[in-house]
Amino acid sequence: MKTTIRIVIAIVISILLVYCATTRKDRHPNLIAGTWKIIATNCDENGNNCVECEADQLCGIVFQFLENGDIVVKGRKTGAYRLEGSRLTIIDGNSTSSVKILHLDKKIMLTMEEGKKSTEKMLRIEQ
Hints:
The protein starts with a helix and ends with a strand. It is α+β, with helices and mostly antiparallel strands. It has 1 helix and 9 strands, in the order H-E-E-E-E-E-E-E-E-E. The protein has an 8-stranded antiparallel barrel.
């Protein structure tokens, strides 16, 4: 009798684990999907002491991260992106680059390029 109860409990737990794993994507939407604009560069790791966008080459660039994994810059598809934990990888033709996402919420994204100590701050301008 105890063995049967243990087997039933193990089966129920397995079913719950499979259910949670398959529905996780629906419960945690892709926060990066949307349109983002670089508003500051050379921030510290906390997103403070930034250089507000003026003459920097990156300033003002608008990125669209589509739900299907495509990335659009200046109105045209330039590649794809992959989000794995706090790492954002951008595949652009033959090149691949990665940034670490230090902060991400519905309005602000703070990223840091590999091997650098400065960050870029982005503002969500559309969902």
